[in-house]
Amino acid sequence: MTTTDQIPDAGGRRTRRRLVAMMMGAALISTGGLVAAAAPAAAEDCTTVPWMNHSKSADERAHALLDASSQHQKYRWLVEQPATLPTRTDWNPGLAGEAPVVYPVQVACTPTIVYTDGPEAVRSAGVTDFPSQIALASTWNLDLAYEKGVAQAEEAYAKRKNVLLAPGIGNTRTPLAGRTPEYFGEDPLINGLMAASDVRGIEADGKVAGQLKHFVANEQELDRQTSSSNMDERTLRELYTLPYDIAVKRGSPETVMCAFNQVNGVYICESPLMQKVLKDDAGFDGFIMSDFGSVHSTAASLNAGLDQELNRPIWFTPAKLDAALAAGTITQARIDEAAFRVIRSYIRAGLFDNPLPAQAAAEASTAANKAVAKQIAEQGSVLLKNDGALPLAPSAGQKIALFGPTASKTVTSVGGVPTSAISVCSLTLRFNPNAAPRNTLPCEDVVSAETALTERAAQAGATVTWNDGQDVAAAAAQAAAADVAIVFGYQRMGEFSDLTDLKLQGNGDALISAIEQANPKTVVVLQTGSAVEMPWLGGVQAVLENWYGGEQQGPAIASLLFGDVEPTGKLPMTFPKSLADVPTNTPAQYPGIFSNGSTTRPAGTSEIRQVSYSEGLAVGYKWYQSQGIEPLFPFGHGLSYTTFAYDRVQVTPKSTNGEKEIRISFKVTNTGSRTGTETAQAYVTLPESTGTPGSRLVGWKSVTLAPGEHANVTIALSAADLADLHLLQYWDAAGHQWKTAKGTYGVAVGGSSAAAVATQFAIK
């Protein structure tokens, strides 16, 4: 499918959601008017209040509730905790030394609302641990992103949680960034469309609201709360805000979270970018909430477009809001707008009409959701190299040796003393090297590669052994006696810290080198959250990037290695040969510097780290193309167990005004001996006059072909695509608008950003 074939109209979803709510409320008594209402006669009778009248629109219901609210009841909607527990009135002090924050009881017939984090899994026991978002992005499958969103929302609701703080969007400006696994890679189009599809799935059943985060340019964990991402307007709009623009227009999320960092010296949660980019330009009509602790002001934040403070009241307390109103630094209209946006989104997402279950389910994961997790792990694993070692063909008596701690759930010990706390269960998106790991995979649900490969090999009479690889010499000796050696290399990363390099951790590079020298048939399985350097690449026969594969990673790896499932994953980020090749290659670019030119904050100061985005638009594959640097593996790369050839590329029409549909057509042929699926990609190079580096992805389509079979593929860029996704446009900073340049556009199609089959078309 093309990029837009898989995304239903956002307005249609909200229309269907309204119809469902109306059908559910058919038996309710209609109140008919939108007047201020007193509390219902009986606490349990909510059919008599207009904000529970399902025949009314979400706008009408939200206005009715505000009409029935006192000033301080309105304030409750502006902070997460007061908004979520209607009857609680006392709250902990916001800031040290302040009196407890007190609210009146909320207007009757408002729901209990519970927020939860969870890009890869709902934060609870008894749920499905899905693969990381970078793995989901590697599927290039928008339908699968939607299914994952549906599954997560189902589990969140069963666990009594109805606002899911996911998905996340970032641009992988540096592969060192700690939250790279939580995002969708380096391309703004994939980021935007994947996030749109994911959030649409979350909100599809009308019980859970989804969220886009973290707006915007939150591209490193180091000093994320005390750094400023400094860039020009064109870079900001074409790379960093564009995915949000796309996700809002195509996904219609109910909420967006503003990030910790500053952009150009202004904290995002008090930046006019919230109003200008999201609400005005993208048409976002949900509410903007802060990250936890990312608010730094009352009036400045509220006036810039922030609608809700996450967690407890600190800056949006009744006392501070009353004082700001009295001083004239905020208006009643802005208070009402913020509360209205929050209430309307809750109603529209179904939170008023689908109260949370009385008790959380002990087990929310289902067989169907586990199947989705396995499918993501399969389709999201990327076969980076294969010199004929894969797929494995097990036979009776064959010896398969596994190496590396993350192949197993076992934590090894000598004399009862653990020698390694690392196993597959230690891979986490909340890893902090300076503190105890949090939110690791629920190990009881993880099926390790050791378990799955052992079971699969046994079907053919082959045997599997596992060695954690801590004794490299002993591991090499064991590898020499095996028919096949499979080495697992890992990288732990996550929120709170960035990587310091792109090397495998746990002595992984030395282990792989020793194994490949001992066994001529060595396969590497990578379990990482970002790119890694591969000094051993020339000596191994195959490399499979599994990312953080979630609880079904073992069965997925077994299916792929044995060829029960064909590899189809494609990289959503470039793998450089070395860290020296990345675009952020000066201290000013990363990690950023201080006024004295140092990368270390001057002692005794709270100075903001200044991070220069001087690479501009040359991020990801655009950097490598424009600089002539050959990466280790290009963006979009991913092998199959067969091969494909491209030819006969053409564009229709050859000349256009840039506002009508453009069709990129070409032939793909399976030139190998197995049936396989190829994700064909189309890239466009803008006219030289625009000063745009490299090419840009404009669409993709998956095609499954038998040996010798070919297909005529068309990637259609509709008029709506061209307008909404800005596929051929550039940001004109002088005019502060998107523009389409006149001139010649280059087109290339192929299996990665290194696509070489090319043609041209013109815009007049």
Descriptive notes:
This protein is an alpha/beta fold. Among the domains are: 370-561, Rossmann fold (3-Layer(aba) Sandwich); 629-763, Immunoglobulins (Immunoglobulin-like, Sandwich). 26% of the residues lie in helices and 18% in strands. It is built from 20 helices and 29 strands. The strands form nine sheets. It has a six-stranded mixed β-sheet, sandwiched between helices. Strands 21-29-28-23-24 form a five-stranded mixed β-sheet, with no helix packed on it. A four-stranded mixed β-sheet has the order 9-8-6-19, with no helix packed on it. A hairpin with a 2-residue loop joins strand 8 and strand 9. The longest helix has 17 residues, at 142-158. The two termini are 29 Å apart.
Q: Helices and strands in order, then pairings?
A:
Elements: H1 10-24, H2 58-67, H3 71-76, H4 80-84, E1 90-91, E2 101-102, E3 115-117, H5 133-139, H6 142-158, E4 163-165, H7 188-203, E5 211-215, E6 227-230, H8 233-240, H9 242-251, E7 255-258, E8 262-263, E9 266-267, H10 273-281, E10 287-290, H11 299-304, H12 318-327, H13 332-348, H14 367-380, E11 382-386, E12 399-403, E13 413-414, E14 417-418, H15 449-458, E15 463-467, H16 472-480, E16 484-490, H17 508-518, E17 522-527, E18 542-545, H18 553-561, E19 609-612, H19 621-627, E20 644-652, E21 655-656, E22 662-670, E23 676-685, E24 696-705, E25 710-717, H20 719-724, E26 730-732, E27 737-739, E28 743-750, E29 757-763
Parallel strand pairs: 3-4, 5-7, 6-8, 6-19, 7-10, 12-15, 12-16, 16-17, 17-18, 21-29
Antiparallel strand pairs: 1-2, 8-9, 11-18, 13-14, 20-22, 22-25, 23-24, 23-28, 26-27, 28-29
